[in-house]
Amino acid sequence: MAANKQDYYEVLGINKSASDNEIKKAYRVLAKKYHPDINPEDKAAEAKFKDINEAYEVLSDPQKRAKYDQYGHAGVDPNGFGGFGGFGGFEDFGGIGDIFETFFGNIGFGGTSRRKDGTQKGADLKTYVEISFEEAAFGVEKELSINRLEMCEQCQGTGAKKGTQPVTCSNCKGSGQVQHHQNTPFGQFVNVKTCDNCHGEGKVITNPCSKCQGRGKYNKSKKIKVNIPAGIDDEQIISLRGEGNPGNKGGVPGDLYIVISVKPHLIFNRDGFNVVCEIPITFTQAALGSEIEIPTLDGKVKFSIPEGTQTGTLFKLKNKGIQNLRGNGRGDQYVKINIEVPKSLTDKQKELLKEFAELMGEDSYAMRKSFFDKMKDALGM
User: Fold this and answer.
1) Which residue has the higher pLDDT, 108 or 201?
2) Judgement on whether residues 339 and 228 belong to the same structural domain of the protein
3) Domain extent for 284
4) What is the domain count for the chain?
5) Could you give the angle at which helices 20-34 and 43-59 cross, rounded to 10 degrees?
6) Domain boundary at 231, 264, 297, which?
7) Residue 282 banded pLDDT, cuts 50, 70, 90
């Protein structure tokens, strides 16, 4: 049977020389992707999730990895000569929930975690909210509508019809687990599995609640107000503790993760907590200098462009940027000057420009003269 299994390194998508950190990173990514809570009723994802955990359970343990590298699946097969010490697969950890909790803690969009006392944290939820550039800069309060599970008031979360109670599972006698004894040439091994009848709950519902159909919870839309802080950036995440799905058996509720999407601005670009704005000016304004109006997040301000300003010049307006998330003041605004060359000149305008060029002469353009001097030296001209 082991011969038909996929190579554990292939399951995690890593090389055989992968480090412990690379193994853990690959596991975390795949476990989140295929977790049953994120893929409900998806048998293929559930099977993939089990394969991922089985592969990680072996490759994350130096001794088991060494046996696997030397003997393959036979080296870590509970029915083979390598063995897992008689505990069978990754049930050593107390089930998939405990493995997920061990490496992800209580964070993971849609994830749940089962405790030793049977309580289970509710699933985390994720939602998205789009805000404007200005709202990101100054902060805003938003009202969100989320769909989440609520504890059923009719059955008080038991899932059983009012006046009845869940009964002890006859298959596992309330333990939530069943044991299979296996005789091998090396002795008897005990393989502990989650009970298929009660799915590890230890109790079954014979008369389900009519409101929640025996789930103990039902879907409900709820409005939540969230304060989005000034300075938040695109794709950053806000977490609201306890605003996810309710837990099981007295477990704490999950958390709500809000992913921020900031709409692009028509004239401003963001660089950290600074703001960049490109402003076109005329040749005359650049040559003679001019007072222009510059847009900022706080409104328009007047700014004096000095004579002889070159295209691409950056000017800084202090404290006109975005509020630092930690409250350490504001960033700056950088104004980039672009000199616009006129098109479709009239004959009169062309004549005046030619006259102007003759009056200026080549020596008046220092940058141009410097470039051509360097070109002559470089090319030996």
Assistant:
1) 201
2) no
3) 268-379
4) 3
5) 160
6) 264
7) very high
